[in-house]
Amino acid sequence: MTDKTDAPRPSRRRFLTGAAGLVAAGAAGAVHADDANLPPNVAPWSKTLGDGVAVRPYGHPSKFEKDVIRRDVQWLTATRESSVSFTPLHELDGIITPNGLCFERHHGGIAEIDPADYRLMIHGLVDKPLIFTLEDLKRLPRVNRIYFLECAANSGMEWRGAQLNGCQYTHGMIHSVMYTGVPLKLLLDQVGVKPNGKWLLVEGGDASGLDRSLPMEKALDDCLIAYRMNGEMLRPEQGYPVRLVVPGWQGNIWIKWLRRIEVGDQPWYTREETSKYTDLMPNGKARKFTFVMDAKSVITSPSPQAPIKKKGFLVISGLAWSGRGKIARVDVSLDGGRNWRAAKIDGPVLDKSLVRFYAETEWNGEPLLLQSRAMDDTGYVQPSKNDLRAIRGVNSIYHNNGIQTWSVKANGEVENVEVG
Amino acid sequence: MSRWVNLAAALSLTLAAPALAQSAKPHNYGIGTPATPQQIAGWNIDVRPDGEGLPPGKGSVKDGEKLYLERCAACHGEFGESAGRWPQLAQGKGTLASNDPVKTVGSYFPYASSVFDYVRHAMPFGDAQSLTNDELYAVVAFVLNLNDIVDDKFVLSKETWNQVKMPNVDGFYNDDRETTEKAFWNKSPCMKDCRAPVKITGHASVIDVTPDDKTARKGGVE
Predict the structure, then answer these.
(1) Residues 186-245 of chain A whose Cβ lies under 8 A from any Cβ of chain B
(2) How does strand B172-174 pair with strand A286-288?
(3) Domain at A296-417, CATH from 2.30.170.40, 2.60.40.650, 3.40.50.720, 2.40.50.100
(4) Which of A63, A138, A217, B142 is least enclosed by beta carbons within 10 angstroms?
(5) Residues 271-290, chain A: which have Cβ within 8 Å of B?
(6) ipTM of the assembly?
(7) Which one, of A382, A262, A278, lies nearest residue A331 by Cα?
(8) Average pLDDT of each block of 10 consecutive residues along chain A (420 residues)?
(9) Residues in CB range of B12: below 8 A, 6 or more apart
């Protein structure tokens, strides 16, 4: 059942030896080229007809892009039904994640829900408890918003030091798509929240029945009941047919396969907001309800899975985001954080969304310690990992937004390192 | 061009004005069907720390032990110590401030409801929502007993709910990042000579736990 996703996975070592060879030979990305297809020769695709229309009724990426896939880390969890796969950030550009590459985090596998049998129940401290079908939700006024979704445990394996070699694994529990959905406020208006309604229990309909407490203030502010991502219906992995969108807040509360919303006057303290998603501090006490994702950034290329292939002109590329608002600036350092310069932001800069940045340089084989530092419009500056550890210790698991360091070697190979 | 924009702006203003005037009372779209008490009862399975949401019924530690060995121990271990890599449910007391914190029902969970609500929603893993109310009470009582929170004779029910005292109930405090981490807000972060020369202090390649061809998943649940 799961074998299909186990498509050939590229070996990091192959990447690295490949890169080293390229740099040594001074040839760029042309190792596998077939002379018969290169000028002055004419390739077969210039002479023969290809597939016609509708031969691929739902289009897939080119077969040459088969390595651009989500990957998981086997030793992290006991079973794939409660586990995580990571977005291949190093293979992407811009700010939109293709639907099939959005990282997955399930607690009871992927629920396959027939949309005819989908129901959303809203009850509790309300005037008029209601049940909505998917068709009901689709009839209501809707909005379109681009938001990032980051798991609070993104980079959680890196608290004690550099561990996983690739931004797919260190930072790949994030994605960013355009959602279409009904503002949660509009739905709450339909049921009529009683004055003492201060918290919502939001609950999934999958086999984990994941439930979380959501403060009313956030629910009325910008949450969405979404049924589309990037124009098409949600993917099953992302909660088809309906998920909750909680902009800027940790992914765990973006309930997938949303089946129920209960209005109450206090939080529920469910397992996912006590045993999990609380941040253990060095003194043995834990922060609770740490919903907001702090500003963070990562260089996606070059990175361990995307080594430098050629000397000379180099575009450093990465992503930045903040759960508190908009990204105001991103700085890049080539020397491990001694000196910084502002990166160029390209594309839309939206509230609680990913931002793409670039920094251009010349590289001639000298060792680099690449870092990026995000700043948001509240003035928050992404801290170094050590500054973060000085306050949060190393047992927090969640909310590791420290500055990532990539070490670039003379052969173009890139490694995840810690600096001191 | 600009004339059109202005016209559009003017139009939307005049159109918006009456709508705004009505907006004090939310619009009712007449969409959605009333939820009946029976429908709500079938799905409303959450339980709060104060016992709100607890179903009728009861269960003893003794009955819970039998059930736990049948339905839970294969993954969580006979004593809650965990079998393989499944979550550990017991022990770990006094470890939270150590270098190797062990978070369990006894050492970390603040409320019995966090256990009850979770088991009611999700356990046994792969056979969720299959336990009766009495079975739920019993198996939760046994998990509490494994953690020395209730004694061998204890019977868990709505009536005895408030007798359960969780050791780590005071172990949590509200998100305080905006005060304790105020230093991270800085309008003009350093740009030049910000620190002494940088040394590499750790390498991911030395740890070597990144998946590749050699460590690729062979499939199957452990």
Answers:
(1) 186, 189-191, 201, 203, 207-211
(2) parallel
(3) 2.60.40.650
(4) A63
(5) 271, 274-275, 278, 280, 282-290
(6) 0.90
(7) A382
(8) 35 37 39 91 97 96 96 90 96 98 97 98 98 98 98 97 96 98 98 98 98 98 98 98 98 98 98 98 98 98 97 98 98 98 98 98 97 98 98 98 98 96
(9) none
